[in-house]
Amino acid sequence: MDVNCLAASIFDYQSVNYLLILILVALFVGVYLIRYGRKKGGESRADRLQREYAVLDIDKLEHIPDGELVDAVIANMIAGLDPKMPDDYKEIPLLSPGQCAVYSIWLTCSVVKKEGLEVYLGGKAGRFAELAVDGFKLVGAYECASVMSAVNESDISESDIHSLEQQLHSAIEREKPLDLCRLYIRSNPEEFIDQELIEEESGEEFSNEGLIEEFSDEESGDRELIDQAFGDEQD
């Protein structure tokens, strides 16, 4: 065999091996960054809130800053979902009326603001549209409740949706339902502490009487959508 041909063959063989090694290293680094990069760079706001407020008692609830109160209560509810099959739509309505109201309002306001009313209605968050009406009423956001009642009508057109979205944005801006949620939580803290703690203190099981409505929808909840609604860290 010609020496030059032999050298070229060896070079090509080594080049292929080198490229394969580079590809494998790149894949390894990519997998590592995907798996561990977020942990190394710091946990997300949703992760931090769920870790800090996985359990809420009266004392802890009272010491949460006003600016984080609603998100802390939401994180507590999300942390309590079934980890194997988290379905907010099946589990949240079984909580206290206040918890159900705050969650429905928070999810509705967050998704409508980020994605728009049409996306909200077409996605899993839209399953809470009727509960949001009752939630708005419970905290005193009656204009928001009125708009959401119109949203829930079955015969609304695409142009109606755009008009109602603007009305809802305006109503939210005027009534500030998330601020009303904060006031409701402060006024009714017993509705937002963990059921197990209530039972330990009273010796009685927590009563679900007066809940807005019980659902049995089989569609799985979208935990990722919920987590995204927390937004970025704002310390």
Give an overview in words.
- This protein is an all-alpha fold and 235 residues long.
- The chain has two domains: 1-42; 45-228, A middle domain of Talin 1 (Up-down Bundle), CATH 1.20.1420.60.
- It is built from 13 helices and no strands.
- Helix 6 (97-115) packs antiparallel against helix 11 (177-187), helix 8 runs antiparallel to helix 9 and helix 9 runs antiparallel to helix 10 (158-175).
- The chain is globular and about 60 Å long.
- Residues 204-221 have low confidence and may be disordered.
Overall 3D form = globular
Per CATH, the class of the largest domain reads: Mainly Alpha
Helical percentage: 55-70%
Return the CATH architecture of the largest domain: Up-down Bundle
Give the CA-CA distance, first to last residue: 70 Å
> Unreliable runs, pLDDT <50, ≥5 residues?
204-221
Reported for the largest beta sheet, the result is: none
Kindly report the CATH topology of the largest domain.
Answer: A middle domain of Talin 1
Encode the helix/strand succession as letters.
HHHHHHHHHHHHH
Count the beta strands: 0
Residue-averaged pLDDT, rounded? 80
What structural category arises from helix and sheet content? mainly alpha
List the domain count as a whole number. Answer: 2
Strand content: under 5%
Give me a quick take on this structure.
The protein is 68% helix and 0% strand.
Layout of strands and helices, then pairs:
Elements: H1 3-41, H2 45-52, H3 58-62, H4 66-79, H5 88-91, H6 97-115, H7 117-122, H8 129-139, H9 142-151, H10 158-175, H11 177-187, H12 195-202, H13 223-228
